[in-house]
Amino acid sequence: MNLELFLQQRRPSWQRMEALLRQTSANPRSLTAQELAELGRLYRAATSDLALAQRDFPGQQVTLYLNQLVGQAHTVIYGGEPLRWQQLKRFYRREYPQLYRRLLPYTIAAFVLFALPAVAAFGVVAYSPDTIYILEGPAIAGLVEEVKEGRLWTEISPGLRSAAAGFIMTNNLQVMFLTFAGGMTVGLLTMWVMISNGMHLGALFGLLAVYGLADSLARFVVAHGVIELSIIFLAGGCGLYMGDALVRPGLLSRKDALMARARVSVQLILGSAPLLVLAGLIEGFVSPSALPGWVKLLVGLATGVGLYWYWLFAGRSRPRADAHG
Q: What's the pLDDT score for residue 165?
């Protein structure tokens, strides 16, 4: 079915359904018996429209719109309340990983924007350590001296820890917010945050490699770093996804396209909060502990495999059994 024809034929019914739902939100008992019956008919028609949209237009804004409209109507008709336990469980079982997969191309782009500068900066600083002053400026001098004396950032004086913390992205909430909010700048701020943080991390590891400390820092971050960096890449993907709406709004106005994508992105960002809590617990109790390096590596691998299995495979529809056996 042609999308424009589909919208032209079905939009009046959706708008009427929206009007009835607005009326119930103002006063749940305001609908007459005739209007309640009409709402029921419109709801059944909208569920059919949603099924068609999911089949024929899976990547279009109309599918997200219908999903929200049907969900709102279901709550009104069947008397449910939002964000109860069952709905929260459904969100994490199906909707959250499905949203992640929808934005996966943007998340991969954010990863590339981070990884390429990281590799380049690592190579440049490892080959010529003094170039770190060009990349990071004179403020890095104190940290460089500590590293030359064989001390890692986790053991250095408190005055230098804040500088080192910025380079290894411990302030994840700030980075996540910047990468997400960068979508409002057509994704330019998001790209800059990903590129600059990749460069900082690569340069720091390059410096540590020269003085034989890169292995020690890797052992410290490996347990919690997989989750932390994955959430940063996800936030970057959300920022690029929103920025793309301003460049390619499709049939919607740029404002409407941005708002629709912002709603999706906010769900992903808020849904990732438990993962950041988990990463924080690992960073607080496992990473600085005296556990052997192989144990920390195992924690990082296990959490990484579990996270990406969940993101990539959870919430997929089960194949229907063959009717012919």
A: 44
Whether residue 91 contacts residue 75, with contact meaning beta carbons closer than 8 Å, is answered with no
**Which tokens belong to 54?**
């999911």
Domain ranges of the chain: 3-82, 102-313
Side-chain-side CA neighbours of 43 within 13 Å: the count stands at: 17
CA–CA separation, 264 and 250 (whole Å): 17
Tell me the C-alpha distance between 32 and 55, whole Å: 35
Task: Give the pLDDT confidence of 82-135 residue by residue, as tens digits.
Answer: 445 667 888 899 889 999 999 999 999 999 999 999 999 999 999 999 999 998
Residue 45 buriedness (CB in 10 A; 0-12 / 13-18 / 19+): middle
Model pTM score: 0.68
Contact between residue 202 and residue 113 where contact means Cβ atoms under 8 Å apart: no
Alpha helix positions (H), 182-213: 188-210
Mean pLDDT of 237-255: 89
Q: pLDDT tens, 212-234?
A: 988 888 888 899 889 999 999 99
Burial class (CB within 10 angstroms; exposed 0-12, middle 13-18, buried 19+) of 242: buried
Q: What is the DSSP string of 105-135?
A: HHHHHHHHHHHHHHHHHHHHHHH-GGGHHHH
Banded pLDDT at 306 (limits 50, 70, 90): very high
Q: Name the average pLDDT for the chain.
A: 83
Please give the DSSP secondary-structure letter assigned to residue 274: H
- Would you state the pLDDT for residue 1? 64
99 CB contacts (<8 Å, ≥6 apart)? Answer: 264, 267, 268, 271
Helix axes 61-78, 254-271, angle to 10 degrees: 60
CA 317, CA 190: separation in Å to the nearest integer? Answer: 33
Q: Average of pLDDT values for 22-48?
A: 79
Residue 118, judged by CB atoms within 10 A of its CB (0-12, 13-18, 19+), counts as buried
